[in-house]
């Protein structure tokens, strides 16, 4: 059975998605349209490239955290200064290259590789920092004179995962992009045009948003959500006490997060 999947952003907590995906695979479900914000866009891209849950778990088991949190400065004070200077502590350049290699192994490098007719099976939410608005990739790339079909999926995911303060904003020429979750962390209505059932995967809120994110959301971007979430099929995934930026802790205990995702999907499935 085909379903569509929309994945919420949530940093390292997103590892729980692997367990939810595994549960659905075991019951014969396959994803058609997939999309999301931030880490949700990462897992959407892996599904679009036809990676299975087992392969995703192997990636995590072998993942080098330095691919994600690389900073040329070793001293804390220098990291802080560079963080202020570059508007982020870490660069995601190595991560982008890593993801590009992964997707390349499945011959799924560009949006043309997930195109069916005039539509795309993968949609990624990004925030345009200068224009203070949400954009959907590849749909809105024409506004920037970028070719949709030839745009790199790894680039789009990295743009969507550029968490403010933690990661340096993603720049392309004069344009600046940051985490899609700043404006829309859970774009559940991405595939409202589809006749295929959509399941939204939402990570539990066990921490208060940072003061910086609150300012970005409420003061700068002035977000007004009109989505009625109770009209959608949403799986609330328990991620225990893990926080968005617990990168090392999450990677060290990835099996626990995967199990939490599996159990959450099982509970939803049988409750229904």
Structural features, described:
- The chain has helices at 16-26, 39-48, 53-61, 76-86, 93-104, 153-160, 181-184, 211-220, 247-252, 254-271; strands spanning 2-7, 30-37, 88-90, 115-116, 119-120, 122-128, 133-137, 165-167, 170-172, 175-178, 198-203, 233-237.
- The chain is α/β, with parallel strands linked by helices and 272 residues long.
- Strands 1, 2, 6, 7, 9, 10, 11 and 12 form an 8-stranded mixed beta sheet that branches. A two-stranded parallel ribbon has the order 3-8. The chain has a two-stranded antiparallel sheet with strand order 4-5.
- The longest helix is centred in the C-terminal third of the chain and has 18 residues, at 254-271.
- It is globular, with a radius of gyration of 18 Å.
- The two termini are 17 Å apart.
Number of strands: 12
The low-pLDDT segments are 75-86
Share of helical residues: 25-40%
For the termini, the CA-CA separation is 17 Å
Summed over residues and divided by their number, the pLDDT gives a mean of 88
Q: What is the tally of helical segments?
A: 10
Query: How do the SSEs run, as a string of H and E?
Result: EHEHHHEHEEEEHEEEHEHEHH
């Amino acid at each position: 059975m085909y379903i569509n999947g929309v994945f919420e952003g949530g940093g390292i907590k997103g590892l729980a998605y692997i367990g939810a995906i595994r549960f659905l695979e075991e019951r014969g479900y396959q994803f058609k349209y997939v999309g999301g914000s931030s880490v949700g866009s990462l897992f959407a891209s892996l599904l679009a490239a036809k990676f299975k849950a087992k392969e995703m778990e192997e990636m995590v088991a072998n993942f080098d955290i330095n691919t994600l949190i690389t900073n040329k400065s070793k001293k804390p004070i220098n990291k802080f200064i560079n963080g202020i200077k570059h508007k982020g502590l870490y660069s995601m350049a190595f991560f982008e290259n890593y993801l590009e290699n992964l997707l390349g192994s499945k011959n799924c490098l560009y949006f043309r590789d997930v195109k069916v007719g005039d539509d795309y099976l993968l949609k990624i939410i990004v925030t345009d920092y200068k224009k203070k608005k949400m954009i959907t990739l590849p749909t809105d790339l024409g506004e920037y004179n970028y070719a949709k079909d030839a745009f790199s999926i790894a680039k789009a995911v990295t743009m969507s995962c550029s968490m403010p303060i933690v990661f340096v904003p993603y720049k392309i020429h004069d344009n600046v992009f940051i985490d899609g979750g700043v404006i829309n962390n859970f774009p559940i209505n991405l595939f409202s045009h589809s006749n295929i059932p959509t399941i939204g995967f939402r990570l539990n809120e066990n921490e208060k948003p940072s003061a910086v994110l609150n300012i970005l959301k409420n003061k700068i971007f002035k977000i007004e959500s009109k989505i009625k979430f109770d009209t959608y099929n949403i799986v609330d995934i328990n991620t225990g006490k893990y926080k968005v930026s617990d990168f090392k802790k999450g990677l060290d205990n990835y099996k626990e997060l995967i199990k939490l995702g599996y159990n959450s999907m099982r509970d939803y499935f049988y409750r229904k």
